[in-house]
Every structure is written in C-alpha cells, then in structure tokens.
C-alpha cells in the first residue's frame, strides 16, 4: 500500500520539487495551494503525513493546523510545519504541529523529517 502525503503550499516550485522527490520514493503525493475547506480536503485524501506551509491562503498554516489538530479523527495525522520564518519553531508549537522543517531545506532533511514522523506514528 502506498503512503500518502498531502502538501499545503502556494509555492508551485516547492510543490513540484517535493512531489517529484516524494513520488520517486513511492509516495502518493497530493497538493493544495490553499487550506480552504481543510477538514474535507484531508478527510477525502486521508494522508499519512501533512506538510503545512506557514503562509498558506486563506487562513495561514497556524490556523489550518489548529483546525486539523482539534478534529478528533484527523488529529492523529502528523503535521510537519514548514516555512522560511526565523521563528518557525514557535509557529509550529503555536499551531500544534508535530515537528517543523525550515525553508530552504535540503531533500535529505525533508526525507528524514517525514521518516521520523511516520515511524513514530507506527510505534
């Protein structure tokens, strides 16, 4: 069964790079340039992991992540908060994300962070 990842980012370049890399590793990649109707989007896709950008339209990553984490069914899905903000750690904490990844990141970092949250989920 393929692992599913959902990436929320309005930067097309990031979406295409991440999609390419993750598909190469056998992920089923879904992307969204906004977080409108986020509960339905996530329920329909049922991802194993979510990558959340801070500056995602319309509400922003903090509110979007809080929305997911307050949903009893969806709160178990690990959210990796990713942003170029220098206070990304406090933003990720505020959002209730499981971990964070600073932009720009290298692909090894991306893979490691995803692996970390997916393996800890199984344990």
How would you summarize what this structure contains?
With 123 residues, the chain is α/β, with parallel strands linked by helices. Helix content is 44%, strand content 21%. It starts with a strand and ends with a helix.
Explain this structure to me?
The chain has a single domain (3-122), classed as Rossmann fold (3-Layer(aba) Sandwich), CATH 3.40.50. Helix content is 44%, strand content 21%. The chain has helices spanning 12-24, 38-45, 61-69, 88-95, 107-122, and strands spanning 3-8, 27-32, 49-53, 79-83, 99-102. Strand 4 (79-83), helix 4 and strand 5 (99-102) form a beta-alpha-beta unit. The longest helix is centred in the C-terminal third of the chain and has 16 residues, at 107-122. It is globular.
Give helix and strand order, one letter per element, not per position: EHEHEHEHEH
Task: State the helix count.
Answer: 5
Task: Name the structural class.
Answer: alpha/beta
CATH homologous group name: Response regulator
Average pLDDT for all residues: 93
Which residues form runs of ≥5 with pLDDT under 50? none
Q: What proportion of the residues is helical, as a percent range?
A: 40-55%
Indicate how many domains the architecture comprises. Answer: 1
Q: Assign the CATH class.
A: Alpha Beta
Overall CATH architecture? 3-Layer(aba) Sandwich
Strand neighbour order, sheet with most strands: 2-1-3-4-5
Report, as a whole number of angstroms, the end-to-end distance: 18 Å
Strand portion: 15-25%
The oligomeric status of these chains comes to single chain
Number of strands: 5
The CATH topology: Rossmann fold
Rg to the nearest angstrom? 13 Å
How would you sum up the major sheet?
5 strands, parallel
Shape: globular
